[in-house]
Specification:
The structure is a single chain. By secondary structure, the chain is mainly α. The protein folds into two domains: 100 residues, RNA polymerase sigma factor, region 2, helix turn helix motif (Rna Polymerase Sigma Factor, Chain: A); 70 residues, Arc Repressor Mutant, subunit A (Orthogonal Bundle), CATH 1.10.10. The chain is 73% helix and 0% strand. The protein contains nine helices and no strands. The longest helix has 23 residues. The model has no long low-confidence stretch (mean pLDDT 86).
Length: 170
């Protein structure tokens, strides 16, 4: 594949699936600077993956797989390098410039997702985007049964958190 063709595919994917990129970034990175770093890492990994895309899976499935793997690897690397890191005051990251207006309910959901472990975060994002258990299992390399068990636990956890915060029946 020529670089020109790869660039066209990448630009199309980024344009058509921008929301997917941002969902993964917001679920795995918490500060604007980290979100910008993770966005760049995911974009780079998606770019690198294009020559390996054979069309056996849907483009969204492929991008999710690459983005989630990149996010998990980035999270582990950041955890090791967190100390000594300094923020850049006064710099508005690109991810904030592209973000739509904030809905408090969506912000609450992302805050809850951030507190989940990596596999649960991945499953939650995939569930919110309507992927089947079979697709999720294939993307994450786990069984469909395990996906079902994990999702039921995640739903119960999020429902409990929502009730705690609203005072409904705790």
């Amino acid at each position: 594949m020529q670089k020109e063709e790869q660039q066209q595919v990448f630009e199309g994917w980024l344009r058509d699936h921008q929301g997917l990129f941002f969902k993964v970034v917001r679920a795995y990175a918490f500060t604007p600077q980290d979100q910008e770093d993770l966005f760049q890492e995911i974009a780079t990994q998606v770019w690198r993956s294009i020559p390996g895309f054979r069309g056996d899976a849907a483009v969204t499935t492929w991008i999710y797989r690459v983005a989630l793997n990149a996010a998990i690897a980035w999270t582990q690397k950041e955890r090791r390098h967190r100390e000594g890191k300094q923020g850049l005051d006064g710099v508005e990251p690109a991810i904030l410039q592209a973000s739509p207006a904030r809905d408090p309910r969506v912000e609450w959901l992302y805050e809850q997702i951030r507190q989940l472990n990596e596999i649960d975060r991945s499953l939650t994002l995939l569930l919110l985007d309507g992927f089947s258990y079979k697709e999720m299992a294939a993307m994450l390399g786990i069984t469909e049964n395990y996906v079902g068990v994990k999702i039921n636990r995640i739903k119960a956890h999020l429902t409990g958190k929502s009730r705690e915060e609203t005072g409904d029946g705790v």
